TrEMBL record:
It comes from the Bacteria. It comes from Streptomyces mesophilus. This is Beta-xylosidase. Keywords: Signal. Residues 1-33 form the signal peptide.
């Protein structure tokens, strides 16, 4: 027999897999074009969203409506411009008939620069949202960031990829990418200023000292995209023999490791082209070659940590179709509980208990079957390596007062992963009125 609508208390944990799937309610896709006369404030573009793997559904594409705004549309070279990326209408909606609470969604994304200045701006928004009703569209959101103007001229700003992180029971990400980048231009900044443009190139080193022949890692940013870049030692006036050349990424970044062995090296620089040019480079960052330990020893105290997680459960589905019985004969209407997976990653001394209770089974014209007519035969399996061992509850009636489905005991160290099943049997009286009967089995994990 089909189960009815689930209560809000029992279904909270069961929809964990759906809560991060911010690409499930997408409206059908297609190509979108902007008018040729003027760039609109609001632009529409096709996005492809990837639900979390736990949701078990494929990618879905659909339209996003967004706009970009700035606090200064006429900056000078060297000014910092604050940018707001507003997703007016996300390509997503609540996929289930379950209300989602407020303040569980945190957006992040990129704004793409074009024209006189190229690159990407990282933007993010706060974890705040109004409650979202079942099957309703997700609300819009805003993300903010900033960039420094390095060149005069028209700089265009277009919406880029964005991600919706939901943190409800567990943290899940739903990235949405622009299907055909770049998205339409939403804002144009007209930058002015004379003289040399600001050098946006930066260099960060993994260490400031090292023994001869040790590697040092340089992290480059702000370089011209897809151009040759060199990481090299510096002797105070020019580069040394310690150098490595590769190509910057399309975002103007790169991570490089160079071996430092020239005793003249007192720093490290990064630059574009064949020779060091401060206008097209970054650094020098100080670097000191050290000598051997001379037989002495040094101790370093190492620390690490293990972060405690949460107690969660998910289920394979929320509907159970039980077998039918004949009018006048009655008997057992049987079925199987949709498998429940419990994950205890808290790492403390507390065990857990999974209980269930059932409503009466309502049928046509006020007919019903009492809740105490439903019995179950619980089963519980423990994943290998789990500190705790799961014990199944006793076979017998469930009823409206409830019964234990499975549990683990308190111990010095508990935790692990468990799967819970149960055979279900509804004892239908002989002359129960014909028709469909539905009840709600609520599972509670504590």
């Amino acid at each position: 027999m089909p189960s009815g609508k689930q209560s809000s208390g029992g279904r909270r944990r069961r929809w964990v897999a759906a809560l991060g799937a911010a690409a499930l309610g997408i409206v059908g896709g297609g190509a979108f074009a902007c008018p040729a006369a003027a760039v609109p404030t609001n632009v529409e573009f096709v996005t492809i969203c990837t639900p979390p793997p736990i949701a078990g559904i494929p990618n879905i594409e659909g339209p996003t409506t967004a706009k970009i705004s700035v606090d200064n549309a006429a900056p000078k070279v060297g000014d910092t411009v604050n940018v707001t990326y507003e997703v007016v209408k996300p390509a997503a909606g609540n996929p289930v008939d379950i209300d989602l609470p407020a303040n569980i969604m945190k957006p992040s994304g990129k704004v793409v620069l074009g024209g006189a200045q190229t690159g990407e701006i990282a933007v993010e928004g706060p974890r705040e949202n109004a409650p979202v009703g079942g099957l309703e569209p997700f609300p819009g959101f805003k993300m903010t960031g900033s960039f420094t103007v390095t060149k005069a001229g028209d700089i265009t700003l277009s919406p880029g990829n964005y991600n919706i992180n939901t943190n409800y029971i567990m943290s899940l990400d739903t990235p949405c990418v622009v299907k055909t980048p770049p998205a339409p231009v939403s804002e144009t900044v007209k930058a002015t200023g004379g003289g040399d443009p600001v050098n946006p190139r930066t260099l960060a080193l993994s260490a400031a000292t090292g023994e001869p022949n040790a590697f040092v890692t340089g992290t480059l940013a702000g370089f011209t995209p897809s151009t040759p870049v060199t990481l090299a030692g510096w002797n105070g006036t020019s580069i040394t023999a310690d150098k490595l050349t590769t190509t910057a990424t399309a975002a103007g970044t790169q991570t490089m490791r160079v071996r430092i062995k020239d005793p003249a090296t007192v720093g490290v620089v990064a630059f574009e082209g064949d020779t060091w040019d401060p206008a097209k480079g970054a650094g020098p960052q100080p670097y000191t070659l050290t000598t051997g330990g001379g037989g002495k020893t040094l101790d370093q105290n190492l620390k690490s940590s293990v972060k405690a997680g949460q107690l969660t459960m998910t289920q394979a589905g929320n509907a159970v179709q039980m077998s039918g019985v004949d009018f006048g004969q009655g008997g057992a209407s049987t079925g199987a509980l949709q498998q429940v997976t419990v994950k205890d990653f808290r790492g403390g001394p507390a065990g857990w208990s999974l209980t269930g209770k059932v409503t009466k089974f309502t049928g046509p014209n006020g007919a019903y079957i009492d809740a105490d007519k439903l019995s179950w035969t619980p089963k519980c399996a423990t994943k290998a390596g789990s500190p705790s061992v799961c014990a199944a509850g006793s076979a017998g009636p469930v009823g409206g007062q409830g019964a234990t489905l499975a549990q683990t005991p308190n111990a010095a160290l508990t935790g692990g992963e468990f799967t819970v099943d149960a055979g279900l049997s509804l004892n239908v009286p002989e002359f129960t009125a014909p028709g469909e009967y539905a009840g709600v089995l609520t599972l509670t994990l504590t």
